Amino acid sequence: MAHIFEGKTTNEAIEKGLKELNTTKDKVDIKILEDEEKRSFFSILTPRIVKVEMTLKEEKKLINKERNIENLEKIDFDRATENVKNFLSNFISSLPGENIAYDIKIENYYIVVDINGDDLNYLIGYRGDVLNNLQSILTAIASKGLENKVRVTLNICGYRQKREKSLEELAEKLAHTVVKTRKKITLEPMSAYERKIIHTKLQDNPKVETTSIGEEPYRKVVISLKNK
Description:
The chain is of the alpha+beta class. The chain has 3 domains: 2-66, no CATH class; 69-157, GMP Synthetase, Chain A, domain 3 (2-Layer Sandwich), CATH 3.30.300.20; 161-225, Ribosomal Protein S8, Chain: A, domain 1 (2-Layer Sandwich), CATH 3.30.1370.50. The chain is built from 7 helices and 9 strands, in the order βαββααββααβαβαββ. The strands form 3 sheets. It has a 3-stranded antiparallel beta sheet. A hairpin with a 6-residue loop joins strand 8 and strand 9.
């Protein structure tokens, strides 16, 4: 996600952006939208404003990994959706229990699958591990026979929304602990999606900052006091 910041000079706009994003210059891509040197004759009397666009490299890397931007328009979503439907029809019918149903739609170049029913916790697993594995399977099935890969987002009984709320509450609680104890806290390994929830929730916190350490799939979020 791109963020735009303003200042009287380029450096001021960049410093403002780094502060608000709780990051350092080496962790962002910076694009100058309006330079103080490129002002027209008619703008001389107006206040000088410089605009810069900043994108977190980790966030940009995740987006580029999840979505092949150049090939999105070439994806045969009708065929991909049919692949998913054929699999789910057989898969759902083989599951124990009743009142299990699924819905498929296209949103922002993703195939979005919602599965709902009674007692489906076994499809979610511990902190979504089974759900995430099933999502990977659906992505592979959707892309079968297609030239370009299509991504599937799977949600079961509203788990994604519940997990997001839980992580946001955890982030706030841990931030309070860091401020109180003045000691940093390292969370357990999380997926890039879950790490982003923590980063986003605390990005405007004036007292703490977040960073990611380690290599996938064991990458973790660290919450620490801001240096003043």
